Amino acid sequence: MKKELILRLKKPLKAADIGEMKTCKEIVITAPTVAIYKYYYPLRYLTDKPIFDAMQEQQKNAKPEDKQQDKNDISNEDLSQCILGLLMMQNVDLTPVIKALNDLLVVGKCAKLDNEIELTQPLFDQLSLSDVELILGAYIGFFMTTS
Amino acid sequence: MARIINNPTVTINNTPFPISANSFVYTEGLGEQKTKIQSAGGGNIDPVDADDIELKYSKMTIIALPTIPNIENLKQFKVLASNNVVQVTGKDSVTNQIITRTFTQARLVSDYNVELSTEGTISTEWNSKAAI
After folding, report:
1. Do A120 and B14 touch (CB under 8 A)?
2. CA-to-CA distance for A117 and A59, rounded, in angstroms?
3. What is the ipTM of this complex?
């Protein structure tokens, strides 16, 4: 498992940093530890089964010549899209999923902008929906489906 | 019909900071303009304006209640000197218009009193670069 996940934000955020406003272009998310289990498992509970079901469906429909791509060979963005696609296939309501991600990142304090500024609730609220989806898919892809 | 903004959201260093109701006061930091009159001769006058750049900074008053998080946070803001950023956002509930002001290099100037009593408050005075 990777120690941290670095994602480039589609819409940069303005955040306070040592008395000035700074435009942040990246979000760095640290790998889950037992310290954040209270926020990690709710997200996992909401997404594990739909992803597993969707993957099984895909495997049934897969042709023999389809190659299994190694997760390390694809970009964070592509993996995120893939995971979101699996969730959408199962008609998962993303509202509680995003709420769980919000708690995980903000209350669990495991995300930093430009690896310096802690992601707080006002900053999370500024994230664009496409960035939240990118983070969600990448987080599940890297930190939940590996185990 | 527009509404008075009396319940703004205050964020200090990216973290929400709860304030006493109806307590946030600020200046835009546009300074003061002084007008002097010069004589143009023949009984005519010619007004001349001057910007007082020494006053081109924002002042804020924020009143907080003496809870432990507020007391600890304010102490931290004081220690940070001018390395704070205060943001205030107000929303008109009728028109949904939003007003935001950002005060960079904000510093707590007064050695504020912490009143530990039922009716106690912590009244703080801040200076910053002109509001954006």
Report:
1. yes
2. 41
3. 0.75
Gap between the Cα atoms of B120 and B68, Å rounded: 13
Tokens at A18, concatenated:
């040592």
DSSP B110: S
Rounded to whole angstroms, what are the CA distances from A126 to A24, A123, A141, B24, B75? 12, 5, 23, 23, 27
* Each residue's pLDDT tens digit, A81-120: 888 888 888 888 889 999 999 999 999 999 999 988 999 9
Give the span between the Cα atoms of A43 and A32, in whole angstroms. 12
Q: How many other CB atoms sit within 10 Å of the CB of residue B101?
A: 20
- pLDDT at residue B21, rounded to an integer: 87
Report the distance separating Cα B24 and Cα B86, nearest Å.
Answer: 12
Q: How far apart are the first and last CA of chain A?
A: 8
Q: Is B106 on the interface with A (CB under 8 A)?
A: yes
CA torsion A119→A123→A125→A127, rounded to 10°? -90
Record the pTM. 0.80
Chain A interface, best mutation among B9, B82, B83, B85, by max A CB count within 10 A: B85
Whether residue B12 has pLDDT greater than 70: yes
Element (H, E) at B94: none
**Token digits of residue A12:** 């940069």
* DSSP per residue, A125-147: HHS-HHHHHHHHHHHHHHHTS--
Q: Counting every residue, how long is chain A?
A: 147
CB contact under 8 A, A19 and B85: yes
Residue of B nearest to A19 (CA): B83
**Residue listed under structure tokens 């997404």:** A47
The token pair that represents A65 in the structure block: 């010549």
Q: How far is CA A123 from the centre of its chain?
A: 16
- B26: β partners: B60
